[in-house]
C-alpha cells in the first residue's frame, strides 16, 4: 500500500516514532521523533508529539509494552488456523492466573503448522481499551497493536544470509526483550527486567543516551552483560529441554539503547558463546535514507519503529491486538477514497455471480438431495429405534441434549471436589522422600496418565506399587521408563485405571 506510514514503538519510559513513505521505488524514511514518558504519563508524551510531522501519516502502527503481555507456547491438537483461534482460549485457561474472559489473545504459528505448535500472547482487555483510547484521543488510530521486537525479528528472518536459527536481543534501560527464532520462524519471546544503568551510562554521550554521572567502571558494565547473557542461556536451555530439541541459535543480533555500549558485541559473543552482530536496518539497500535523516539517525533506537512501519499487514504477519471489540473500523473518508476501486471490484463480482447463479441453482439442488439422503441414512444408523422421521437434524439435536443432561447427573462427571480427592490420593501414595517431578497429568473419567522424571528405575517401580495399593484404582501400568539425555534421570509415564 502506497502512502505515509508511521511506526510508533512505545516502552515504559519513551516513545520512538518513524515515518516511512512507500512507493514504487521502495520505502523512504521521511522523519522520526523521540519523546520520554515522564510523570505525565503516555497521554502527555503523545500530546508533545501532536505538532510533529511524524504524526501526519495515512496509517499508523503501534506497539504494546512487553511487560503488559504474557507469552505461552501451546501445542494444539489440530492445524487449522480458524480452529486454533476458536480453541486456544480454552487450552490456555489453566495456564494463566486470570479469568480468560478478561484477556485478549492472539497467536503466531511457530512451526509452519507441521505439528500445530503456536506462540500465544495475551493482554488484559481493560489495558488494551485504555491504551487504545489514549492513542485515539491524540489522533492515532493504529491499524495494528503489535508486540515489541516481533516485527524486527520477522524483518530479520526475511533478509538473505540470515541463519536458520537466530536470537534477537533488545537491551533497554530497565528491561530486555529476547526473541528466539528456529527454522526461520519465531519460536519464543521473553521479556525480563534487569538493572542496565551501568550499560546505559557507558554509552557515548553524542548518542543521546549517556548519563551526566560519568562512565562506570568496566567491571560493572561487564557484570550487567553477564547477567543478561546468563538469563538468556537459562531461558533457551529450559525451552530446548521442554521441547526435546537440539536446535539452538547460531547467531545473536542485538539492538536497543544498551547496544551502544563499548565492546557490547565482544562481551555478548563471549558470554553467549556465539557470534554477535549489532543490527542496523538502514543498511538494507531497499530502504532510502536521505538528507538530514542520515545525520541524526541512530539504528539502535530506530530499528524497532522502522520495522513496525514496514510490517506487512496484508498477510497478517505477526501479532495484532486490534481484534474482536477493538478491531479497527474504517471511517467514511477512507471508504470514499477507496470507492472507485471498490465499484470496479463489485462490478466484476456481480457479473460473475449473475453468470454463475443459473449453474449453481441446479448444482446446489442436486447436492441438497444427495445430502438429505445422507443425513437420513446417518439418522437411521444412529437412532434405529426411531421410525418416524420428520426433521432428522432437529431430532438428533434433541437426542444429544438428552444425553448431555443424563451425563451431567453422574456423580463422576468431573466436579472439582472429585478431582481434588483424586490428586490428594495420588499425592499421599507417592512418598515425600522420592525425588519426583511431574511434567504432565491427564485425567478423564476412566484413566489418569502421569508423565514425569525421577532418579532411578526402582523409584518408578516404587511409585507404581504404592499407587496399586489404593482402593480408588483398579490397575496401574508403567507405559514407559527411559533414561533422559543426561543419563542421570529416568523419564517415565504411568497409566492408572480408575475404579468405576
TrEMBL record:
Key words, A-Z: Membrane, Transmembrane, Transmembrane helix
Coiled-coil intervals, chain numbering: none
Transmembrane stretches, start-end: 342-364
GO annotations of cellular component type: Gram-negative-bacterium-type cell wall; type II protein secretion system complex
Pfam families: PilN (PF05137)
A biological process term (GO) from this entry: protein secretion by the type II secretion system
Recorded superkingdom: Bacteria
Protein name (Swiss-Prot/TrEMBL): PilN domain-containing protein
